[in-house]
Amino acid sequence: MIPSLTAAPAWQSVGVDDHAVAAGLAAEAGRLLVEIRAQGGAAGDKQSNELLLRRLAEVRPDDAVLSEESADDGTRVRHERVWIVDPLDGTREYGEPPREDWAVHVALALDGVAAVGAVALPAAGLVLHTGEPPVVPAREPGPIRLAVSRTRPPAAVDHLVRHLDAALVPMGSAGAKAMAVVRGEVDVYAHSGGQYEWDSCAPVAVAAAAGLHVSRLDGSPLRYNQPDPYLPDLLICRPEFAGPVLESLATA
């Protein structure tokens, strides 16, 4: 559940670890977004971003930050520690209450690896994070369940449906789809339609900590804090499906 917030949250204390910082930040931004939801997505993006940047400057002043909602001057690539945030993942869904399939992403990339992360699903009252890695539920029998965008299904999805006889489960934001795999609601999230580092860094950190397979669609590692933050494809899935999915995609 979302950690309770006080005037001096524990995650702001000196010496608190990065996992607690990520979870606390995602929780606080999520709480703000719930409170101001009636103002719409533009206000949500702006105010959540301002909150995250302010808090990071307070608790991790020596670290660099890459945010979807802030200009990127490129100086971050000289840092080993870079916070990568998406203040509001799923602006469309956020603007359609009572939809729950939107998220807040807070991650820390260490030497290019998504090492720390938290994904808040504020409308569902959840924060999934690497400090307490989620336990992926046992899978129910049935066809492979494939998370897919409700508005923009990528080409990889059509290929997987044909080759793996997968069942589609439409939903909104990237974070919501990734966390649906973590929560056992779907088995595979494959994306090929174009993303940026802030779309996947926190979800990848959480999914990897939970023991799921994470990679690019060709099976290569996901690398973060690159000079160009464009990171167009992503695979998060249960480990037992990684081989069949990657083999199928190799023939696309």
UniProtKB/TrEMBL annotation:
Coiled coil spans: none
Superkingdom of source: Bacteria
UniProt protein name: 3'(2'),5'-bisphosphate nucleotidase CysQ
One of the GO BP terms on file: sulfate assimilation
Keyword Magnesium annotated: yes
InterPro entries, A to Z: CysQ/Inositol_MonoPase, Inositol_monophosphatase-like
Single GO MF annotation: metal ion binding
Residues binding Mg(2+): 68, 86, 88-89, 199
The organism of origin for this protein: Amycolatopsis acidicola
Keyword field: Magnesium, Metal-binding
Pfam name, any one: Inositol_P
Cofactor(s) listed in the protein's UniProt record: Mg(2+)
The UniProt record lists the keyword Magnesium: yes
UniProt-listed CDD domains: CysQ
Record-linked Gene3D superfamilies: 3.40.190.80, Fructose-1,6-Bisphosphatase, subunit A, domain 1
